Every structure is written in structure tokens, then in C-alpha cells.
Amino acid sequence: MVTVIQAYRFALDPTAGQQVALRSHCGAQRYAFNWGLARIKANLSQRAAEKTYDLPDDQLTPSLSWSAYNLRKDWNQAKNIVAAWWGENSKEAYSSGLANLATALGNWAGSTKGTRKGSRLGFPRFKGRRSGVSCRFTTGAFGLADDRRYVKLPRIGLVRTHESTRKLARHVERGTARIRSATVSYRAGRWFVSFSVEITRSDPAPARPRNAVGVDVGVKSLAVLSSGETIPNPRHLETALRELRRLQRQAARRVSPDRRTQRRPSARWRRTQARVARLHTAVANARRDCLHKLSTRLVRTHGTIVVEDLNVAGMMRNRRLARHIAGVGMAELRRQIEYKAQWAGVHVHVADRWYPSSKTCSGCGVVKAKLRLSERTFRCDECDLVCDRDLNAARNLAALVHRETSSPSCGATQNEPAGNPRKTRATRATGTATGRPAPTGTGQRRRRKATAA
Ligand SMILES: [Zn+2]
Q1: Nearest Cα to 373, choosing from 359, 352, 354?
Q2: Cα-to-centroid distance, 208 and ligand 1 (Å)
Q3: pLDDT, tens digit, for every residue of 142-189?
Q4: Which of 7, 102, 105, 189 is the most buried (most CB within 10 A)?
């Protein structure tokens, strides 16, 4: 049993009136974000200008705090003047925009100082009307309705869901789940609600706990397992490319926006773009579904899964391979395997990035000096092993764990990868996302419970 933070996302079927209310809340979120950003920006440039006059630091305009708490306090003082209409939306809408702003500014500051991991981030930019439309509710009456076909949202009321909320409802009724926040968003022509849930899961143990499986992820086939099984690449993107090309030709014939001449796009161009977005969403959904089915099956069957540490970002830089690699979703498969393995207590072994899984013979262990990517069949020079290139690699991966963890006690070692969902989410839960100062003690208690489970 593990306690994790998990998201449950449902597509919504709002009425016309509810759609207006949803859009209004998301607009309010954007308004508060932009209002706060404008103030911070003005303050920063005022101070920068004053510094050029050689004013001493104590005579400068005082700097504004950009913590979510202070942003909210300032907003509450100013809202009657800057947004007299604020009462039309739940106060959560404005809080959510300001919390997003606090996170964005914090990320920028951390990135400039070098304390934040990942690529460099720029200063937050104003949100346009068509930027990611979303709004988060952290307090008030939100959750599931009793009949499993509706969700409750503050101010908006009961909104019908496109599918049953059964999966989450059962957990809530049993008392193994607690809904922490609800985020509504608009993506590719459809409204969604995503619940952030603290959930106690009890996943079944793998069917063959003593078995290790090597997984060679590739482009030709999605994955080859050391058991000899091949999971074909469904090529969802390739199937959609024909229609995508047609739509993009169509868009090219229509009036697109032009920044230099200030030309506004036509309604027909927007319509085509919406169709393109819908097609991309369909492809992404199909791909995700396929990866989920594979990763769940792997952790349900095998006690140990051996994967390669692939440099996916590096491979994406190869323009001949980029589309095919993106089309498979290699990094996503590894991410799914790692978090699901943790839930089920399955051991994940990540082979070293420089381990020559393809060049090694799985029969006698001799490493070849060179192996072209076009050579699809592995032929050993020493013994007479002839087998499929990917199957050879998968067998090498599986053998890796047998060699390194031959004692039975090692099989039970819990792997804690960098993307450990339990750890990162628990720290994120206390404060930053909601913009609320961490409630005293709860974070501590929660973490202790997670380790005990
Ligand atoms: Zn050999």
C-alpha cells in the first residue's frame, strides 16, 4: 500500500451557460495573472531606473513581494478599483492566477540564480486570450456528485461528465482518496476537469515476481521483450500524417496571422487550426493509451524490469529520427514504467547509458566493435548466434540484472528513481501549487505516513 498524489481527469459536457461560466473563470484567472505581472514588472523597472541615478538602496522604491500570499493580499486591496466585476467569479479564480504567477516568478528567479534544475527560463510573459485556458479550485465546494455522472465546482455548480467518475468515486466512498484540488481546462475544443487526489493504492503484486524482463524500446517495433515477444509500433502519427498534410495545405490557403503587418487570422483559418489541434490530440490519446496498456502489463507480470537509460532529448536532435522517436513516446514509456513499478513494488533496473546492449552477443558475451543501425539481424563472429537485433539487446538487458543481483534479497530492493512521484509531489503539495503557506505539521505527517505504507 502506498500513498501517492495522482490526477484523475474527466472530460466534461457543460451546458451552454456553464461554458460561459467556465470561460469567465479562466478569463478571471488570466486577468489576475496579468494584473500581478504588470505590477511586478513596473516595480522592477522603476527600481532599475532609480539605480541608474545612483540612489542609495534605502531610498529606492521598495520592492514588491511576489509570494502568492502577498500577491493575493495586494489583489484583495485593489480588486474593487481594477476589477469591479470580480464578484462574478469565484475568488479561487483570482487566487489561482496569482499562485501561477508566484510559481512562474519563482521559477524564473531560481533559474537565473542557478538553483533551479533544467533549461533556462525567461521572465514570465503576459497571457494572451488563447493561451492555456485553465483555472484551479483549492477551497470551496468541489468534488464528485453522488450519481457518478456529475462533478461539483464552486460557483459553476453541477457539471455533467462525459464518462462515469466511477473509478475515483469508489476510492472516495471507501475513504482511500482525498480530493485536494480541481483544475478545469480547455484543450482542443473540449473542457476537462482534473482532480488532484491523495490516494492510498494497493496494487497487485506481479504474477511472476522472480522473473526479470529486458525491454528494448525502439522505432521499428515499439518494444521487444527478452521473452521473445515483440510489441509492434502502432504508428498512430504516421496514420494521421496524410490527414494532417491535407489540413495544413488547407490552412495555407487561408488567411493566417502576420505579426509584421498586424494581419488578423480569418475565422476559416482558425477553424482549420482547431481541426489540426483535434487531430494531434487524437494521436496523442491513442499513443498514451497504448503505452499505458504496455507499461501496466509489464509491472503486473514481471518482478524486475530492465530498461535502457536512453538519451531521448539527444536522439530528438537527429532530424531524421526525431519524428519517429516522438511518435513512439520512448521517454513517456520509461516514466510510466518507473512510477507504476513503484506502486506495485516492482524493481526497475536502469542499464548504464553506455552499456552496449545492441553490440554485445547475448550468447557468449563478445562485444562487437561496430554495428550499423541498418543491420537488423545480429550475427556473432565468435559463436554462431543469429537472432533479431532488438531481441539480442533485450536479452542482454535481462541478463544484466541476473549478473548484478544474483542474491535473492536484492530482488526486493525498492528502486527510487529521480522521477519518484511520491517524493516530488509531496514536497510540491505543501504550498507552492496552491500558493498557500504550508499548513503546520500536515506535510510532515503526510510524509511519515507515506514511508510507513
Ligand atoms: Zn556470440
Answers
A1: 359
A2: 29
A3: 999 988 999 999 999 999 999 999 999 999 999 999 999 999 999 888
A4: 102
